[in-house]
Amino acid sequence: MSDQVKQNSANANEQEPEELFKVRLEKLKALQERGCDPFTITKYSVTHHSAEIKDGFEELNEKQVSIAGRLMSKRVMGKASFCNVQDLQGSIQCYVARDSVGEEEYADFKKLDIGDIVGVLGYVFQTKTGEISVHAEKVTLLSKSLKTLPEKYHGITNVDMRYRQRYVDLIMNPEVKDTFVKRSKIISSIRRYLDGIGFMEVETPMLVANAGGAAARPFETHYNALDEDVRLRISLELYLKRLIVGGLEKVYEIGRVFRNEGVDTRHNPEFTLMELYQAYTDYHGMMDLTENMFRYLAQEVCGTTLITYGDNQIDLGKPFERLTMIDAVKKYAGVDFDQIADTAEARKAADEHHVQYEDRHKKGDILNLFFEEFCEDKLIQPVFIMDHPVDVSPLTKRKPDKPDYVERFELFINGWEMCNAYSELNDPIDQRERFKAQDEAAAAGDEEANHTDEDFLNALEIGMPPTGGIGYGIDRLVMLLTNSPAIRDVLLFPTMKSLDAGVKKNEEHNQAQNEKKSAPLESGITREQALELLKKYNQDRFHIRHALTVEGVMRSFARELGYGDQEEFWGQVGLLHDIDFEQWPEEHCIKAPELLREGGCSEELIHAVCSHGYGLCCDVEPELEMEKVLFAADELTGLIWSYALMRPEKNCAGMELKSLKKKFKDKKFAAGCSRDVITQGAERLGWELDELLEKTISAMQSCEESVNAAMEKE
């Protein structure tokens, strides 16, 4: 690189993005004034891509080609220059000489910026160093890039920005583009495979009156023309089964489904699901189909059935192991549930192996807990786990010879559940009873419960043949075949909290919050007075322990988030947040201001205490970061403590995120702890749900000893 180019590069790096934008805008205006506006060009004839030229060099050497792509680098050296043009298939070097393109065109070339989109017409040749290149005869600016790309050697490394600006991510990171090319191949290969064995692809409604087929909370919207509330589908199941009733014996659909739930490394509220149903077969037929299809996909997309995920090599070429859940637990935990007669014996085995369970759990539930605890993370190579207990699969056909178990399987690879399949229930009377139970659960407040679908029942009453069905999460399958660590890495535009959400409010409160961060907030009372005030209205040991725990958690967060000088205020807010709940549960957060004012508390503390009930029992919205932490942590500490009481140690020591997440997803566990509030709390803080869970576990562990000591004095 010439000294002049190096100097220009150094100057560019020192310039602010806004200044560079102005420089590029001036270049565009100069071109437009000369009648060379690139944005008036409507098409450009492309004959070859970069990889085609390199792969076909022997045939294309010294022949004319036309390429187009983004200018990714440029080396100007007097009368001749080199540049690198990136297209769909990769990149290729171009040699641009003044004598070949003309003096004026060469001057224009030197003014091009990295990121500009160009067309290059020229002939193929090989440089003295052996690099296959294009000798340019004409360079055409097709689109002017007004904003700079990230620095070449570091690319776009901010993960959040990669997801938000996927277009830049695709430009700067070739491996990202390869992932999404593979995703497209995976989906097209699934279609080819299923079409080849006689399945028919269909499309079913996304907007439905009754969102069923899975335990999930749906998104809701409204049809203006019909004046009718509708929901976005949460599965594909019920309409596909209607088609089986109609005589379409093999059907499948690949489509988006929507579940109004949290976000983590393997879950996104909007995701791609593939479901298929086949008449006159059972779950054994579904296993055969699944194994053959996974093997086919690996060969088609990866070129081999031996794939790598993280540190593991996974062999999809060998026959997949098939284990009943009982066999898996016997293999990995050394406990034979065939020898366990009833729930009492199952609980005894759980106690001996330190497996936490709840009073409501029966033998089958405990078997499933053993499987989750001892087996899941061991299932790296493909294995079908079959014959689940009916206690955890209430909507599935029972095994005729073993009615406590059902005809169901899950495929596990890399410790993940990759698909879920059943011998489908086709008894309309049984289905009606199960819908009735779901209606009762919904009436009791279960937002994930299904509702009776009369049209679906009508279809079953007409008659559905014995049918096998299966559902695959396409996004998780893509993760596996592309060695991607998170679901957002395989979604072109994953769900992200809008950067504009709350911007106005943040601006309004930003100055005040900064001032409060530098000058501690005043509670109006001492910690001793706050504790005395709490005990004046609360005598229940559970309520006092919860208050002390939230106090400790708030203090921990204050230190971690850089509010150390406000730790006392944060702690007192946590201590007093439920001051009115024991005696006035119906007036929670409404009675509190009166009690706190009588106790001498400041208005700042009163506002903070009331804000944790926003949307539930008051309209005081969390504004400061401290209030947002309280909003999230209050509900979550209750969930964590409920789980701690289930553990043999009866404390939080050694508690792991993985185990807590299982309890979080089990809506029947600690049902009074709202998962929605916890999820909203994470969103308000701008954190991932996993981050909130992990931070709160750590905070509770840090204060548990002091809380225990305080409770011993009570």
Structure at a glance:
With 714 residues, the chain is of the alpha+beta class. The chain folds into 3 domains: 3-149, Nucleic acid-binding proteins (OB fold (Dihydrolipoamide Acetyltransferase, E2P), Beta Barrel); 177-316 and 449-490, 2-Layer Sandwich (BirA Bifunctional Protein, domain 2), CATH 3.30.930; 503-712, no CATH class.
Structure explained in plain terms:
With 714 residues, this protein is an alpha+beta fold. The protein has three domains: 3-149, Nucleic acid-binding proteins (OB fold (Dihydrolipoamide Acetyltransferase, E2P), Beta Barrel); 177-316 and 449-490, BirA Bifunctional Protein, domain 2 (2-Layer Sandwich); 503-712, no CATH class. The chain is 45% helix and 18% strand. Strands 6-10-11-20-19-18-15-14 form an eight-stranded mixed beta sheet, with helices on both faces. The protein has a five-stranded mixed β-barrel with strand order 1-2-3-5-4. A hairpin with a 2-residue loop joins strand 18 (408-413) and strand 19 (416-423). Residues 1-14, 502-506 and 508-513 have low confidence and may be disordered.
